[in-house]
Design brief:
- 70% of the residues lie in helices and 4% in strands.
- The protein is built from four helices and two strands.
- It is elongated.
- It starts with a helix and ends with a helix.
- The chain is mainly α.
């Protein structure tokens, strides 16, 4: 019996994509010496790694269609690949926005934030302080 290597490559690439999405959801950076971990600049990177892995899963699954064994890993790899691409892109956007908040909290005078108005900065400072206070009351 001939093994469906391409199908298994697609399946494992799809599973690995979900592993990277899960890793992207783990907070990695501390906010303002508060002991609170939040999303850093590496979180969107992990989420974006899931996208090419999802593409590999889809391509390997489609290429394995030519093999005799058409069951199991081929279909699973394609399905996981499609879902991983969608969730990976959503996770990347969400973690990028949250890592932006962490960057601002740790360095509000960064030149990246010069275009923000004083009112926007005040609102953002208030939101960060509320996050810190709510996390202290929960612990």
């Amino acid at each position: 019996m001939q093994k469906n290597v391409k199908g298994f490559v697609g399946l494992f690439a799809g599973i690995l994509a979900f592993v990277f999405i899960i890793i992207a959801m783990i907070p990695t950076t501390e906010i303002r010496n508060s002991g609170i971990m939040f999303y850093g600049s590496n979180n969107p990177t992990f989420a974006l790694i899931a996208v090419p892995l999802g593409i590999v899963a889809i391509v390997a699954g489609i290429m394995s269609k030519k093999d005799k064994d058409k069951k199991g890993p081929r279909k699973s790899g394609v399905i996981l690949g499609v879902i991983a691409i969608i969730i990976g892109l959503i996770a990347a956007m969400a973690t990028f926005a949250l890592s932006f908040l962490t960057t601002y909290a740790n360095n509000p005078n960064d030149p990246m934030f010069e275009s923000m108005s004083k009112e926007d900065k005040a609102n953002l400072d208030k939101a960060i302080d509320q996050i810190i206070e709510s996390s202290k009351t929960q612990s």
